[in-house]
Write a structure and sequence with these properties.
By secondary structure, the protein is of the alpha+beta class. The protein folds into 2 domains: 193 residues, Multidrug efflux transporter AcrB transmembrane fold (Up-down Bundle), CATH 1.20.1640; 73 residues, Alpha-L RNA-binding motif (Alpha-Beta Plaits, 2-Layer Sandwich). The chain is 64% helix and 8% strand. Strands 2-3-1-4 form a 4-stranded antiparallel sheet, covered by helices on one side. Helix 5 runs antiparallel to helix 6 and helix 6 packs parallel to helix 9. The longest helix has 33 residues. The two termini are 25 Å apart. Pfam families: SecD_SecF_C (PF02355). Its main location: membrane.
C-alpha cells in the first residue's frame, strides 16, 4: 500500500475539527455528556393496578405529569416496578399522581434510589487518564526522543478530546458504562501510539537514504497494518454484541466501536502530522 499519510493531513484535521466543534455544540446544548442516572437520585415505585394495564399506559400517566420512567418492569399483568431518576426526591409527588388516577389497588411502595456513584468519580478518572498521558510522555523520553515524547503526549490528549466529542454527538450520558469505555479506549490509544512511536524511532536511520517524509509514511504504513488487523478482529466481536446483546453490554459495545474506529485513524494521522509540525521547529530529523 503506497498511501501518503502526510499528504492527507488537511483532510484529517478538517474532519477532526468538525467532530470537535459538533461535540462542543452538542455538549453546550446538553445533548450529550450530561450526568446520567448512575449519578442521580431516583425513585423506585411498586404499584398494583386494579385491572391489567400496558406499560405504554403507565408511561402516559407519568408523561402527563412531566415524568419519564427510565425502567418499567412487569412483575405480572397488574403489578409493576417503576424506576425514575429525577435528580431529587420526588417520591411523594409521584405516589400522589398514581393515587389520583383511581387505578391503584392497595398501597403504593415508594423508595428512594440513592446515587451509588458520586459525580467526582468521573473527574477522578479523567485525572488518572491525564496521569497516564504524562507517564506515556516520560516512557517515550526514556529513549531520549523529546520530539517523539511530545508527539505521543499531544496525540493522547487529542484522542481523548475526539472520543468525548464522539460520545457527545451520539447523545451519550455520563455513566459507569461510559467511564469504563473511556478507560478501555484510552489504554487502546496508548498501545497504538507506542507502536507508532516505536516504528518511527526504529526507522529514523532511513532518513538519509529515503528522506524524512518517506520515513514517516513508511513508519505509519507499518503501524497501520498491525492496527488495522487488530481493529478488524475487535470490531467483529463488538458488532456481534451490538446485534445480539441488549442493555448495558450493547451500549458498551456501541461506545467502544465508535471510539476504537476514531482513535485508530486519529492516532495514525495525528502523530504523523504533529511530528511534521514539530520538525519545523526542531532540526533533529532533518
Amino acid at each position: 500500500m503506497n498511501f501518503d499519510f502526510i499528504a492527507k493531513k488537511r483532510i484529517l484535521f478538517m474532519l477532526s475539527a468538525i467532530i470537535i466543534v459538533l461535540g462542543l455544540i452538542s455538549f453546550l446544548l446538553r445533548w450529550g455528556l450530561d450526568f446520567g442516572k448512575d449519578f442521580k437520585e431516583g425513585t423506585l415505585i411498586e404499584v398494583n393496578f386494579k385491572e391489567p394495564i400496558e406499560i405504554k399506559e403507565i408511561r402516559n400517566i407519568l408523561k402527563k405529569n412531566n415524568f419519564t420512567a427510565d425502567v418499567i418492569q412487569s412483575m405480572d399483568e397488574k403489578k409493576y416496578q417503576i424506576e425514575l431518576f429525577t435528580g431529587e426526591d420526588k417520591k411523594d409527588e409521584i405516589k400522589n399522581l398514581f393515587i389520583e388516577t383511581g387505578l391503584i389497588k392497595g398501597d403504593i411502595k415508594v423508595n428512594n434510589i440513592l446515587p451509588f456513584h458520586s459525580k467526582d468519580i468521573f473527574v477522578k478518572i479523567l485525572y488518572l487518564i491525564l496521569i497516564g498521558t504524562v507517564m506515556l510522555f516520560l516512557i517515550s523520553l526514556i529513549k531520549k526522543e523529546f520530539i517523539l515524547a511530545l508527539v505521543a503526549f499531544m496525540t493522547a490528549i487529542f484522542n481523548l478530546l475526539l472520543t468525548l466529542s464522539i460520545f457527545s454527538i451520539l447523545g451519550k450520558k455520563i455513566s459507569i458504562t461510559m467511564t469504563i469505555s473511556i478507560i478501555i479506549i484510552f489504554i487502546y490509544s496508548i498501545g497504538l501510539i507506542l507502536n507508532i512511536i516505536n516504528r518511527i524511532s526504529k526507522n529514523k536511520l532511513l532518513i538519509k537514504s529515503i528522506g524524512y517524509k518517506k520515513m514517516i509514511n513508511l513508519s505509519l504504513k507499518q503501524a497501520s497494518g498491525v492496527s488495522s488487523v487488530a481493529l478488524i478482529a475487535v470490531l467483529i466481536s463488538l458488532i456481534g454484541l451490538i446485534i445480539y446483546s441488549e442493555g448495558l453490554f450493547r451500549n458498551l459495545a456501541i461506545l467502544l466501536t465508535s471510539g476504537f474506529i476514531v482513535i485508530t485513524f486519529s492516532s495514525i494521522f495525528t502523530s504523523g502530522y504533529l511530528l511534521e509540525i514539530l520538525n519545523q521547529y526542531f532540526s533533529k530529523y532533518k
